[in-house]
């Protein structure tokens, strides 16, 4: 077991190096001269050269990458071109909002998909309802869903705030009110995919012997469903979370932008629009490395729960 | 149930394609012509109202179908052309080729497609062909993974063994035995890739990093309308509904074939 975990963890090192190098190279090579961008088009060659040597843009990309990684490992991602603020200080305070939003959305989707699809549905009305809901969740883009929710619940009904963020420490109730719509928006896609994954497994487990035994014992259908089938069918959903983390970050970027959530996704979009290269690079790296690590974690968790799977 | 959703999906796809082809005939105004009638609601003159520059939203939505279909279908073609050969080669030959392919596929499947597309499009510029290639490039690993899995299964079939015993060359076996058997899953994957490419390109435009104005583009129109949601919701709702319906159409067809 430990052996497997160590081997699996070592395998991600080349991936991390390869991807971060690729990102760094594409950002620096294709963005052109950052110095020219900072100083404007009619900057003198001396000023450009001076700035290049200050920031180290005159070195080879490989050297730049190594020194970037070396400082990044020490928590130094440079300074933002736009605000001159230290990048790390711009990013760190925004991480909690992103994690809170994404975490709650995943939890809501998981809870909704497993509970709604475990209710013993004799007439099939609920099944149809769930199918429709999951297809809507998968196909309606986050921005459209978010805007529709804002239109209905904020603009028309006036029940919830349109956008923005109030920190928990400032006002817990307002904090929750501001969270509801973004969390629902972000969870919709996951509700849809979890429903598909969970249902497939549910059908398999449903036919197993212990379910028949439970029924023969005279347990009620809902008890069989929630106590016996649900816990045994949830594993693929958990694996799927690991696999879909890439999707999640994409959805979070859009959702944070729609609802003006002060998370790293929105900062990422802003940094791209304003060509703020250090911020963009730092967030890109954090997302990529984060997704790789979370995948590893999901893999390890899966092996712990299901020892049949081992590295071939 | 499956047949019904497929028919419904096909109907939507045909409708969107017809709209894209006949947009100039169906449109009541030029999609670029601005007027002084800003942000009007729906009326007999402007069926879906007008946007902040007084342009007719109905006409812009029609022309937006062209942009979306071009990117969606183009990206799916790119993804299929990259993903299918790689998947077949990895699945059929196995060994080191397969190990390498799986490594690369796993690496890219896990990555955030939208974030990747955001970075690459910003670098190379958000033109129609660029977006098409970027989205195709982001989506090929999913296609390759599915094709590889299918090929692996078919490779073990008795008829493939028989073909090998008869001395069939790999290319011949792939063409006569593997390809016809994966055609179904490839076409399903094609439809699903189209739907997600349209979804993603609309998201890029919504973030302001896709097709630049004034090209009629659904995601960009939704973004414009977002600022005027309380004045006239149709500015974003009409193009937003168009995205959702188109994505749904392709998704239904794809998932019903699978």
Short description:
The complex is a heterodimer of chains A (312) and B (258). Chain A has 312 residues and is mainly α. Chain A is 75% helix and 0% strand.
Please, could you describe this protein's structure?
The complex is a heterodimer of chains A (312) and B (258). Chain A has helices at 2-31, 34-39, 45-55, 61-73, 87-91, 95-116, 125-139, 142-156, 172-206, 209-216, 221-233, 235-243, 245-258, 264-273, 277-305. With 312 residues, chain A is an all-alpha fold. Chain A has 2 domains: 2-94, no CATH class; 96-262 and 293-305, MetI-like fold. In chain A, helix 7 (125-139) packs across helix 9 (172-206), helix 8 (142-156) runs parallel beside helix 13 (245-258) and helix 10 packs antiparallel against helix 11. Helices cover 76% and strands 0% of the residues of chain B. The two termini of chain B are 14 Å apart. Chains A and B meet through helix 1, helix 7, helix 8, helix 13 and helix 14 of A and helix 4, helix 5, helix 8, helix 9 and helix 10 of B.
CATH topology of the largest domain in chain A: MetI-like fold
Net shape of chain A: globular
CA-based shape of chain B: elongated
Oligomer: heterodimer
Fraction of helical residues of chain A:
over 70%
Number of helices of chain B: 10
- Detail the poorly predicted runs of chain B: none
Unreliable residue stretches of chain A? none
Largest sheet of chain A: none
H/E topology pattern of chain B: HHHHHHHHHH
β-strand amount of chain A:
under 5%
Largest sheet of chain B: none
Backbone CA Rg of chain B: 21 Å
Order of helices and strands of chain A: HHHHHHHHHHHHHHH
